[in-house]
Design brief:
heterodimer, A: 198 residues, mainly alpha, 2 domains, globular, B: 203 residues, 10 helices
Chain lengths: 198, 203
């Protein structure tokens, strides 16, 4: 995210403003804070609850950047179902008693993570600003431009994302659906069961 | 996974083993009030995937979360008894069959895999639809009949499989595990003994 100074055009359509709005800043701080707290909290239950908040923050960010399909998935799977599965897991296991509220910080791990973040951050200035009309995705839109121009005429779907998922890239989606099915079968195999519900 | 649940009472270092299910009027009432709306929203997202954000994946997850909420409010064991295994398995397998069927029929008609317009020469006059409308309704069929069913079924199944936990390998090493009924009974008894905390909390 390139932070350009002087974001004066904070209007109704923040996606068109080149710069960063206060809403974005607070969302990013929220997501970063919840991500760090998820790692820091000693109590697994607290970590899971904060992790759900992190997923919800991400879902809001996706929706804010006009990707409601991704946001819905993040909210339903990340904040909802994953949290339930993790809660179920800690309910089935035991937790060591400890008075410490926070996990002891593993400094070698922190330095490696910091190094990775630094390497990724070096590439950030190469990205265009959010909503920049001169960005390659808009000036050189061979693929996305084709979808946007033709998706409705060719598929009759108002939601171009679904048109790509189920029509243009239907084969990939078929593979994904089979992966989900295989995950269910594999869970039975690993758990040594023959039925989901007795 | 603790090998022996009885250790939890004697072991001094392991504490705070909470019961899986605690009956709560607040949670039960809330879930009762929320479930119809969540289910409706899940169906809406599923059925309107081509016209608005969402689709089979998100809608299927919401539909499955209805069952997950019921399990949290009314107990995993009672929800497990209420929900038949045939329904959970059927959702997933029927979903795969519908998706694969819709994808494979065009190949039988001499077109490519998932080529929705291949249905047009066959069904166009019968249904009175234009060629591009077959893409739209083909996508709807794949989203609703394929992805949503698979995701809903597998997520419900994963939840109950996870809640039941692992079947110890000594059940499978017994020589006469060939008959399905035998292993079924064995896994059932294991569920009863393995879920002491659950059973105790239900009282």
């Amino acid at each position: 995210m390139s932070v350009t100074a002087g974001s004066s055009a904070v209007g109704l359509l923040p996606i068109q403003s080149v710069g960063i709005t206060p809403i974005e800043v607070s969302l990013f701080i929220f997501v970063l804070l919840t991500a760090v707290l998820t790692a820091l909290f000693r109590d697994v239950l607290a970590s899971i609850v904060i992790f759900a908040a992190y997923s919800l923050g991400l879902a809001v960010i996706y929706t804010f950047y006009r990707a409601p399909d991704v946001g819905l998935t993040e909210a339903a799977i990340g904040a909802g179902v994953t949290t339930v599965f993790l809660l179920l897991t800690i309910a089935k296991t035991t937790r060591p008693a400890s008075d410490a509220r926070f996990e002891a910080i593993n400094w070698p791990a922190v330095s490696i993570c910091g190094l990775f973040v630094a390497v990724v951050a070096v590439t950030l200035p190469a990205f265009p600003a959010v909503g920049d009309p001169a960005s390659p995705i808009l000036t050189n839109a061979d693929v996305s431009g084709y979808y946007i121009a033709n998706a409705y005429d060719q598929t009759g779907a108002e939601n171009a994302v679904t048109a790509v998922l189920a029509a243009y890239r239907g084969f990939d989606t078929f593979g994904e659906a089979i992966v989900v099915f295989a995950a269910g079968v594999a869970s039975l195999l690993v758990l040594g069961r023959e039925v989901f519900t007795a | 996974m603790s090998s022996d649940p009885a250790d939890n009472d004697t072991g001094g270092t392991i504490t705070r083993q909470r019961p899986v299910y605690t009956e709560s009027q607040v949670i039960m009432t809330t879930v009762k009030a929320v479930i119809p709306f969540v289910l409706t929203y899940g169906l809406f997202i599923t059925f309107h995937g081509t016209g608005s954000p969402g689709g089979g994946f998100q809608g299927g997850a919401l539909i499955a979360s209805v069952v997950l909420m019921m399990a949290f409010a009314f107990g995993i064991e009672s929800t497990r008894e209420w929900l038949s295994n045939a329904l959970v398995v059927g959702l997933g397998t029927v979903g795969v069959a519908i998706f694969a069927g819709i994808a494979l029929v065009p190949m039988a008609l001499g077109e490519n895999f998932l080529e929705y317009t291949a249905y047009y020469p066959v069904l166009g006059d019968v249904l009175g639809l234009k060629e591009y409308e077959f893409v739209k309704y083909g996508m709807e069929a794949v989203e609703i009949g394929g992805i949503a069913l698979i995701v809903a079924g597998v997520l419900m199944g994963l939840f109950f499989a996870l809640a039941a936990g692992v079947t110890p390998p000594n059940d499978t090493t017994t020589p006469d595990t060939e008959s399905a009924a035998d292993t079924d009974a064995a896994s059932n008894t294991d569920t009863m003994t393995g879920d002491i905390d659950t059973e105790g909390a239900n009282k």
